[in-house]
Design brief:
The complex is a heterodimer.
Chain A lengths: L2 E5 L6 H12 L4 E4 L10 E4 L20 H10 L3 E5 L1 H8 L6 E3 L7 E9 L15 E8 L3 E3 L2 H9 L3 E5 L10 E5 L5 E4 L17 H11 L1
Parallel strand pairs in A: 1-2, 1-3, 3-4, 4-11
Antiparallel strand pairs in A: 5-8, 6-7, 6-9, 9-10, 10-11
Helix pairs in contact in A: 1-5
Chain B lengths: L1 E8 L6 H12 L11 E7 L5 H16 L5 E7 L3
Antiparallel strand pairs in B: 1-2, 1-3
């Protein structure tokens, strides 16, 4: 398993994500700066949470146009797994790697608490170790996690079984309770909840561990 | 040349902030207010051979960065001078 996590200016979950991956993968995870354009061979790239570029213009908009994203796009096309969490999800939608967009939470407030979600499909490299419908508790911490997509786009996601996670108690107004979506090739996942913050019983439970175990099982 | 890009949500995309403004207006007694929408204006100066070239360039900027075509529409105005 060759994995890396990208750091953008303003990322703040990059280390947490690396630590969570390293624990499950039992090997070092590389750190990539957003300005890099030549990447080592990889099986998995993580785009972490945080506030890249201070959320200026739109959340993730400027990071989505940073130099490394051309390479991420190429990797995604080649089938490399790309995992965007929170701000990473926003970056993936802004980059056009995932459909839809993330806008201000319906009730306008920043939501920072554990939420219950259900695994909506196990047919992905990110979710295969979970059980279909398995309920998880993962933390969310976002102001702009309200997933919007037009009816045709939603119908396509549902027909293609590309909704990875759904909220059981929708914290932000997301369309169809969507908490995470897969790209057309199923190798790109964007999700608002933070699995990397739920990988230790001391810190928010362990419901996130199986996501990284799924990746380990699929990619090695 | 000076340009102005006005960016707004596409019809059908619910803007929670606009809804909050509408509600606050109602609370102040401005009843019957409908269709509150927010527009973001980005102004910039650029070098271009003529107005058409400037407009084309600003449209490209809007498509590539200033607006998110998934949820937003934009209009470009080039200032006379």
């Amino acid at each position: 398993m060759r994995a890396a996590v990208v750091t953008f200016p303003g990322s703040n979950c990059d280390r947490d994500l690396r630590v969570a991956m390293e624990r499950v993968f039992d090997r070092p995870v590389a750190s990539l700066w957003h300005a890099e354009t030549e990447l080592p061979p990889l099986d998995l790239v993580g785009l972490p949470g945080g506030f890249s570029y201070g959320d200026y213009l739109r959340c993730g908009a400027i990071a989505a146009r940073s130099p490394i994203m051309g390479e991420i796009r190429r990797l995604a096309r080649r089938g490399v797994a790309v995992l965007g969490i929170c701000n990473g999800f926003q970056i993936l939608t802004e980059a056009g790697l995932l459909p839809g967009a993330l806008v201000r939470n319906m009730r306008l407030s920043f939501v920072c608490r554990p939420v219950r979600i259900a695994v909506a499909t196990t047919a992905s490299p990110f979710t295969n170790a979970y059980a279909q419908g398995q309920e998880l508790t993962l933390p969310v911490a976002h102001h702009d996690g309200n997933y919007v997509i037009d009816p045709e786009g939603l119908a396509r996601l549902e027909a293609e079984d590309r909704i990875a996670f759904r909220y059981l108690d929708n914290p932000n107004g997301s369309t169809a309770d969507i908490a995470g979506v897969l790209g057309p090739q199923r190798n790109v996942l964007g999700m608002m909840p933070h699995p990397e913050r739920a990988c230790d019983p001391l810190l928010g439970g362990e419901d996130g561990v199986l996501l990284f175990r799924s990746l380990l099982a699929m990619l090695t | 040349m000076k340009a102005r890009v006005a960016i707004r949500y596409r019809p059908g995309v619910l803007d929670p902030e606009a809804r909050a403004i509408e509600k606050a207006l109602a609370n102040l007694g401005f009843t019957g207010v409908r269709g509150v929408a927010r527009t973001r204006i980005i102004e910039l100066e650029l070098e271009a051979a003529d107005r058409e070239a400037a407009e084309a360039e600003v449209r490209r900027m809007s498509e590539e960065l200033l607006a998110n075509p998934v949820i937003e529409t934009y209009s470009v105005t080039i200032a006379d001078r």
